[in-house]
Give the backbone structure.
Amino acid sequence: MKAGPPSPLSRRRFLTRSAGVAAAGLAAGGLGSLLTGCGSAAFDAGLLRDPKPPGPYHPILWPVRVSNRPIPGGLIHEQDATLRIYTWPGRIAKKCLDNFARKYGCVVEVRTFDTMSDALTTVASGNARYDVFCGVDVRALGTLIGGNLIQPLNHDYIPNIGEVWPTYTNPFYDQQWLYTVPYGIYKTGIGWRKDLVDVDPYTVLNGWEVLWQSKFAGKIAIIDDYREGVSLGLLKTGVTNLNTPDPLQIDDAAHALSDLAGLVRPRLDNNAYTGLATGSAWIQHAWSGQVAGAAKFLPKGTPVEALGYWFPPNGSGPVASDTMVIMRSARNPVLAHLFLNFMLKRKNAIANVKATGYLQPISGLTPSRLVSDGVLPHALISTAVLQNDFYRGLKELQLTVVADALWQQAWQSVVGKMGL
């Protein structure tokens, strides 16, 4: 007799068992610390009694090791120094870098990474020595703190923390901001070229579905990140728990992404700045800051109104912020503190938003103010992140080891099909 389709329970057991095997293999291969992140890595290092990852309802106060204390206050910054910064491409305005270098008589050197996984691998290797790590995903803090890779901050050097939204002086992922200051805030949604396509995600019941249209084959791009990618599949299938450990939901998300691959051959691309501006992508799964920044790259004669950005009007989409931290191995820790403080100053934050498109959680930088001051085009006001957006938006938090392995398996099962 032919066997019937597997029951949901047996399928769940199979997927969970596979995830356990994958997690064990990854840990044996030396990647365990990158996967376990905010919970287990720090727990294994003896920093936490509870290995549960941080979240809005489970805030974390990271301990400070005796062997890794903040630098003393009152120090003079390093002289004739080269401040080395590690960050995403296009995330710090050249004007800010030049002004900082001029103010403190130093050289500023910037190196970039394309994915957070690559960045963590680089800093964990010990082969590259940076002072400031900028644009750090909050999900990576457990790895960095548990691995003794970053140093706690001396708040005396960072008085400009008073410029930021109050929530960031005691964020859930780093209570009392012991190790981090906030940097960019952004939403994940869909950017599109209104002059090249005849769709508007705001007119679709589930706006994520506009990516699944075969008539746009070859002109679709999605973010190259396993969390953002699988989250897209979840949102397409109506699941809003972007930290789900449920093997069935994760598997359904992978099937949705496989369907997307077959329909439109999407490109994996973390650069919506030029993708949308040049028209190599007509519709792009993208971070809000990049779509805002794409306005600078539009061909001459193409109005900014040609760009559109969609985010679920009910707020049920990914909203996140990233951070700036100081590496424990920093050669210039005083300058590093001063740089964090510099980037939190209102006028520098405005210059940075204007150049990069990424907002910073600075009090008073409202969307209407940004538009009136010419920092943000009115046509792209939907890229702005309000404090309310941040509170009600969906959060991608750190996963358990088994759940993380399931997510990575799901992503790897479809990534080879993308862009074919």
Q: What stands out?
A: Residues 82-185+320-392 form a domain with the D-Maltodextrin-Binding Protein; domain 2 fold (CATH 3.40.190.10). The chain has two domains: 82-185+320-392, 186-318+396-415. Residues 8-28 form the longest helix (21 residues).
